[in-house]
Amino acid sequence: MTLVLSLGDPAGVGPELAVRAWAEGAGPFTALGSADHLEKLGATVARVDAPDATPWPEALPVIDIPLAEDVTPGTPSLANAPAVVEAINRGVQLCLDGHASALVTAPIAKWVLKEGAGFAHPGHTEFLAHLSGAPRPVMMLAGPELRVVPVTIHIPIADVPAALTPELLEETIRVTHAGLIRDFGVPTPRLAIAGLNPHAGEGGVMGREEIETLTPVLDRLQAEGFDLTAPLPADTMFHPAARARYDAAICMYHDQALVPLKTLSFDDGVNVTLGLPFIRTSPDHGTAFDIAGTGRARPDSLIAAIRLAQEMAARRA
User: Fold this and answer.
1) Which of 205, 245, 280, 316 is 20 to 30 A from 111, comparing alpha carbons?
2) 123, 48: one domain
3) Are residues 207 and 247 in the same domain?
4) Is 47 annotated to bind ligand?
């Protein structure tokens, strides 16, 4: 089996980066999207009906999903939104049916899908969970030097304390622990847990979430045998010596996790969704409409996402 790659918004950088990734030897993979558009980007394509792992010398295998309108780089089209959603749908189904080893997703623009296709989900992760029936997907950002998992994701900072429930924290830790074992080959995962407040609350002086919400969950999981270090001040968790002491950092909110990850791995970070019944990775960047079609976008993160998906699939096999 080979992996499949949904091309994302055709007006963004996803399709052009897929062409470059194939040219730079990141295959084999089968693209899900418009074959005509890929040909206009200079690719030699082979239209196929199913994922094809044949090592084509030049042609990029494509399961063709035609677009409603011609593409203008940097200018998203609402008319093309249904095709973007269909590519994701097709990729999930191929994985669930056992015809693809993993799904790599190029970036989408949620507002385009919402207005053009009635997309009702906050993002890719939630949509993939909906399609697959996964109860608790977990977003991990992985780079060569660091893996981070935010417990709460795309919500305002003001809403984080209320959203940070013991149940959510425990589910996130359990899914991350299982994913490190199954997909990353870490037999006994070490997890560092960040505090929510400055100085991890400093004994309750700067907030009591560490005492009342985090520590009871962590004590219970440690009693089960989980290797947890927590709660830690986030400002001392990400220097080299600290990173050497854990396999992943569990962070309480979006930027607490993504700022250090993107500082260390801005060009080659990968978004991994744990807790799904199939492997899913994605480049750690958006559609980049502002540079689409200019040749300035770098394929590093997409190539890293493809190669990580291949490694994860090999471990599961």
Assistant:
1) 280
2) yes
3) yes
4) no
